[in-house]
Amino acid sequence: MTVMSWTDDRVEQLKKLWEAGLSASQIAAELGNITRNAVIGKVHRLGLSGRAKSPSSAAPRQRKAARPAQHMMRISRPVSRGNTALAHAFDVEAEPDPIAYDNVVPMSQRLSLLELNESTCHWPVGDPGSADFFFCGGKALNSLPYCAHHSRVAYQPASDRRRTSRPTK
């Protein structure tokens, strides 16, 4: 490994090349036996900042012409809530299940963990550590662990989750 020392002549040459607008790589090649990073470090230690602009960057760039406003016709689409991949499992536009709406579950429908089976809704309600904890127990949809209402709550599109979880400034 060769150690290069910055002589006064090399520093002066560096300053002239830097002010002429050469890049650090070009200066390193011009000085010889020095790396681009060594040039950058010396430039910062010397406090050199103002440089001549290269001819290509000094010329103002042409702006693109503004596009004329295009009138687009919006087509209304039915709004689908919940995971659209599960749309085949239940009708997205169907009315919410009146039995299990807003966690109001009739006493006769409430189930414990041991009472659950494949045809019952596995939606937990309450604190698992408390005595009044239960599962919804409503009629589960085919191949899903939840009833129609709780499936809509559980399977939401990622875009809806992102909108609600962003912190406000």
UniProtKB/TrEMBL annotation:
Pfam name, any one: GcrA
Recorded superkingdom: Bacteria
InterPro entries, per the entry: GcrA (IPR011681)
Family annotation (Gene3D superfamilies): Homeodomain-like
Region (Disordered) location: 49-69
Official protein name in the record: GcrA cell cycle regulator
Organism: Afipia massiliensis
